[in-house]
Amino acid sequence: LQLITEQADIPLSRGAEMKGKCGTNESELELSWLDQAYTLKLSFLKEGHNTSRGPEASWRLSRIQFTYDTSERTYFKDAVSPGKHTASSHRLSALVTPAGRSYECQAQQTISLVSSDHQKSVQLLLSEVRLQPFDIPADFVFSEEHKCPVDQREQLEETLPLILGLILGLVIVITLGIYHIHHKLTASQVQIPRDRSQYKHMG
Q1: Which positions ≥6 away from 125 have C-beta within 8 Å?
Q2: Residues 6+ apart with CB under 8 A from 156
Q3: Which residue ranges traverse the bilayer (predicted)?
Q4: Which 3 state secondary structure label does DSSP give 174?
Q5: Distance of alpha carbon 138 from alpha carbon 21, whole angstroms
Q6: Strands lying side by side in the sheet with 145-147
Q7: What mean pLDDT is predicted for residues 87-113?
Q8: Domain count of the fold of the chain
Q9: Are residues 82 and 135 in the same domain?
Q10: Residues 74 and 131 both lie in one domain
């Protein structure tokens, strides 16, 4: 029995061709590179929903479609079944962001896709992402960012020791201050001797 495994890491090329459609509630971004051997299509959806604070709107990445050609020799050297294949998401709800804000995430996120070639497993790795498909204030200008939960947690882990250190330092300063004031007040009071033999006999 011979087990043949193949793995290809396909980076998004800086020279990728871009096109897309911008709508009020639906937007699409399409990236293709290496003479369209690889095409990545991202679909976004903006929708409203009711919350305890009232009606709110948000947008999300609703669909991913990745077309790849295993006969292309840059990343696939000896593909078992060369040819074009498509991998896509299933009921996706990712990068959820409040409407009017951009999505930002430095951490790596993994989204699994289902390939038309069932022998292949396809994963999309996203890192250092900043996106805004709706309510763009101006060309090449992002609205206020909405950080992903992983970045928020990492930021909290970085700042929490500093906050705890400041609180501890403040408690120590307050404690020393109270001790100093108490010591000064008790020192300025007239000390009455407790030993009655120290009183002078009167009469």
Answers
A1: 108, 109, 110
A2: none
A3: 160-179
A4: helix
A5: 16
A6: 129-131, 102-105, 145-147
A7: 93
A8: 2
A9: yes
A10: yes
Decide if pLDDT at 192 tops 80: no
Q: How far apart are CA 128 and CA 96, in angstroms?
A: 16
Q: How far apart are CA 19 and CA 30, in angstroms?
A: 5
User: What would the two tokens of residue 81 be?
Assistant: 């079944």
- Shared domain for 154 and 175, answered yes or no, is yes
Q: Is 4 inside any structural domain?
A: no
**Between residues 35 and 171, which one has the greater pLDDT?**
35
Pair (99, 181) in one structural domain: no
**Largest Cα–Cα separation, the chain:** 122
Tokens of 37: 């051997």
Judge whether residue 1 has pLDDT over 50. Answer: no
3-state helix, strand, coil in the chain (%, to 5): 20, 40, 40
- Same-domain check for residues 23 and 115: yes
What single-letter DSSP state applies at residue 36? T
- Pick the closest to residue 62 from 8, 133, 122, 10 (CA basis): 133
* Residues spanned by the domain of 180: 148-187
Q: Which two tokens stand for residue 153?
A: 């947690």
In total, the chain counts a number of residues equal to 203
Task: Transcribe 98-164 into DSSP letters.
Answer: ETTSEEEE-S-EEEEEEESSTT-EEEEEE-SEEE--S---BTTB--SEEE-HHHHHHHHHHHHHHHH
